[in-house]
Automatic annotation (TrEMBL):
Pfam family, any one: PhageMetallopep
Domain Putative phage metallopeptidase: 2-112
Source species of the chain: Sulfurisphaera tokodaii (strain DSM 16993 / JCM 10545 / NBRC 100140 / 7) (Sulfolobus tokodaii)
InterPro entries: Put_Metallopep, UCP014405_Zn-bd
Name of this chain's protein: Putative phage metallopeptidase domain-containing protein
């Protein structure tokens, strides 16, 4: 597998974070793109264990990874929804944990908010 930083994903995440008032500190999240993954997922959110943060970079708590083969060809609205979904895994406290799909915040976005997503894509 190959990895690279995904500045385009980070920029989209900034817009999504602001539009949906998620109040996440995106400076504590690394955004990467992978190629050659066998994952069935379009994207995934990972938390760094405290030992890894101590050794590598104490400022980064989470990684949002998009799978290039599945993410890159999506229309803008779907990309924005994928990023919204991944950011929803991260709690507002940003203390290292992750929310699962049973969390109430996921119920709010179960039906994609197409109006807001289209509005986001107008500005990209």
């Amino acid at each position: 597998m190959k990895f690279q930083y995904a500045d385009d994903v980070k920029e989209l995440a900034k817009i999504v974070n602001e539009k949906f008032e998620l109040k996440l500190n995106l400076e504590r999240i690394a955004f990467i793109r992978s190629q050659g993954s066998r994952s069935k997922a379009i994207a995934r959110t990972l938390m760094l264990p405290s030992q890894w943060r101590f050794i590598l970079s104490p400022s980064i708590l989470y990684i949002v990874e998009v799978i290039s083969e599945k993410y890159d060809n999506l229309p803008c609205e779907e990309k924005a929804y994928v990023i919204l979904h991944e950011l929803t895994h991260i709690p507002n406290s940003m203390k290292g944990g992750l929310r699962n799909h049973n969390h109430p915040h996921f119920r709010k976005i179960k039906k994609p908010p197409y109006k807001e997503l289209k509005e986001i894509c107008k500005h990209i």
